[in-house]
Design brief:
By secondary structure, this protein is α/β, with parallel strands linked by helices. It is built from seven helices and seven strands, in the order αβαβαβαβαβαβαβ. A seven-stranded parallel beta sheet has the order 3-4-2-5-6-1-7, sandwiched between helices. The radius of gyration is 16 Å and the shape is globular.
Length: about 210
């Protein structure tokens, strides 16, 4: 299979391989809130970056929030996005280490915020952050939103406040039980579910 790369105004050339299953998932994600269940190593972050690029193309002023449960994961995603996305965007990790008094100012100057759910939930509660001008919210490790996890609170606030809310939820392991997927769907306002395994026809070639 010949390797070709994604060509998009916001994506650095030669950084994201063109893969048919990723295209399909990205198109689904552009049509409604989507849960993407895909094994590790098949490019969850690439899919997130492609959706982000398409959202930015539609609305350059829309901002993006990328959530992951741990600080190392948050950092990893930011570095990957910096590799994929063209210069001219302000990407920044915001954590509890940033002083609460300074966070409001930090938020107002960032295009794509990478953070942990605890930090964002606290700042939403305190009014330090408003998600009204966010046009995409990405929830990594989305299977964690079962129960009373901060993801649930953030999703609720985001969908209520944003004029153009779009949610992309990513996980490698939703739990093999359908009720688990159903719970994630209801907590994160999911319309579409895209599931891939290594055996799927559009995944096999890669």
């Amino acid at each position: 299979l010949m390797t070709t790369y994604v060509n998009h105004p916001w994506i650095n050339p030669g950084t994201i391989e063109h893969r048919s299953y990723q295209d399909r998932i990205v198109n689904t994600a552009m049509s409604g809130n989507t849960l993407c269940v895909i094994p590790t190593g098949l490019g969850k972050t690439s899919i997130a970056a492609l959706v982000a690029a398409k959202i930015l193309e539609k609305n350059r002023n829309g901002r993006i929030l990328f959530l992951a449960p741990t600080r190392p994961l948050v950092e990893q995603h930011r570095k990957t996005f910096e590799k994929f996305l063209k210069l001219g965007l302000e990407l920044r990790t915001v954590t509890g280490e940033d002083k609460p008094g300074e966070r409001a100012n930090i938020y107002s100057n960032i295009d794509i915020i990478f953070s942990t759910p605890q930090t964002i939930a606290n700042d939403l509660k305190k009014g330090v952050l408003d998600t009204k001008d966010f046009s995409l919210c990405i929830f990594d490790e989305a299977h964690r939103c079962v129960g009373n996890y901060a993801y649930t609170y953030i999703a609720k606030r985001y969908v209520a406040s944003s004029s153009t809310p779009r949610i992309l939820a990513l996980t490698a392991s939703p739990g093999s039980h359908k009720y688990r997927i159903d719970e994630v769907k209801s907590k994160l306002f999911i319309d579409n579910v895209e599931i891939r395994t290594r055996e799927d026809e559009d995944v096999k070639p890669y």
